[in-house]
Design goal:
alpha/beta; Aspartate Aminotransferase, domain 2; 4-stranded mixed beta sheet; binds pyridoxal-5'-phosphate
């Protein structure tokens, strides 16, 4: 590390050199939709480029303006935001929902508004960065339990002071692994220790559940899961996020969540597009059916090829290759073949677990899937997995 006396330029140069030396340098690439086959994004239902959403967005902008013009508590809270909140609450079977500009901010705001230095926060080790950052913003310490391990969670819960307020926090679908949290089990453990449970269902909403209401949704009520976060930039194809729960929770967030209070309300056209996405989610269940069929086919054929696929029932299908150089090699070869997949390395995942994060979408055709499998088969032939 750089000494505190060194100049800023020396500090930046040293950190860049370190990241390069470890093979972890990240680069953005301009993505031209249509030019490559996208197996990296989170547009699970193929809604992001649905022309009906673009039309709704344009109409929303015409009616309300391109931007909201102010924060929700000043003059930026518009009828379209209000209508969207009602629809989201209805989708997940909760009394109320509160719209945030991004999922990152929903998690920051919720944890910051609820917790402080005396709150005990328990987080799954594989939780999304925004959940850890939210607890840090609140000045609360996060105790991290082994992934999906209720026994470890209960051990930590049992050690906390009896009179402390406790909050258990978990992803619904884990974003880099694709596995689904045992929400009923987490709810039981939380209840036994008098803790509240917060589930971030960013990747489950729109994909899981009988109505696309996610891994929590209507199946688990407010009593079991008092705090539910959903994001709108993934399966719903737009952007933004919401927190759903009791009226008291929502009012508390409106009062105290700084990432809610001190930011401009979401552009109204985006909210209008999300309303259109919710209409399509309800009217076209065949999108979810098609997505699930893709997942089943991909898994069956990948097993035949002996590919080291993680056990995931969701459209997130990680191919755990181990070292980051191998991951970069495979990702580059796939890109040269016109196939875009995520190359995920530390610090996003633990060292030695670098992976290709392959995501499937209802927008893919059978032929798209075949192209991906053919390319993977060729790579596996050249460089068999140990
Ligand atoms: C993507 C994601 C977020 C952040 O949502 P944005 O709307 O993209 O800011 C939060 N939590 C999880 C689990 C995510 O995967």
């Amino acid at each position: 590390m750089v000494s505190p006396q060194a100049s800023w330029s020396a500090r930046l140069a040293a950190r860049a050199a370190d990241r390069h030396a470890r093979g972890l340098w990240r680069e953005r690439r301009c993505h031209a939709p249509g030019a490559t086959l996208d197996f990296a994004g989170n547009d699970y239902l193929g809604l992001a480029r649905d022309p009906r959403l673009a039309e709704a967005q344009a109409a929303g902008a015409q009616r309300y303006g391109a931007g909201a013009g102010a924060s929700h508590l000043v003059s930026g809270h518009l009828a379209v935001h209000e209508a969207l909140e009602a629809r989201l609450a209805e989708l997940v079977g909760r009394p109320r929902a509160l719209l945030f500009s991004t999922g990152y901010m929903a998690n920051l705001g919720t944890l910051q508004a609820l917790c402080d230095g005396h709150t005990e926060v328990f987080q799954d080790r594989l939780n999304h960065a925004s959940l850890l950052d939210g607890a840090a913003l609140a000045g609360a310490r996060s105790r991290r339990f082994h992934h999906g391990d209720r026994r470890d969670l209960e051990r930590l819960l049992g050690r906390a002071p009896a009179d402390a307020l406790k909050l258990v926090v978990s992803d619904g679908v884990f974003s880099m692994d694709g596995d689904v949290a045992d929400v009923a089990g987490l709810a039981e453990s939380s209840a036994r220790h008098g803790a509240w449970l917060m589930i971030d269902d960013a990747h489950g909403l729109g994909v899981l559940g009988d109505h696309g209401d996610g891994c929590v949704g209507r199946a688990q009520g407010v009593a079991a899961v008092p705090i539910l976060v959903g994001t709108l930039g993934k399966a719903l194809g737009t952007g933004g996020a919401f927190v759903a729960g009791s009226p008291a929770l929502i009012e508390h967030l409106i009062q105290f969540a700084r990432p809610y209070v001190y930011t401009t309300a979401q552009p109204p056209g985006v909210a209008a597009a999300t309303l259109a996405a919710l209409d399509i989610l309800a009217a076209e269940p065949e999108r979810r059916a098609r997505l699930n069929a893709h997942v089943a086919r991909f898994r069956a054929e990948a097993a035949r090829l002996d590919l080291p696929l993680a056990p995931s029932p969701t459209p997130i299908q990680p191919l755990v290759l181990g070292d980051s150089e191998r991951v970069m090699r495979w990702a580059t070869r796939l890109r040269e073949a016109g196939l875009l997949v995520g190359a995920i390395r530390e610090p996003t995942v633990p060292r030695g677990q670098a992976r290709l994060r392959i995501t499937l979408s209802a927008a893919h055709s059978e032929r798209d899937l075949e192209r991906l499998l053919e390319a993977l088969a060729q790579l596996q032939g050249e460089e068999p997995s140990p």
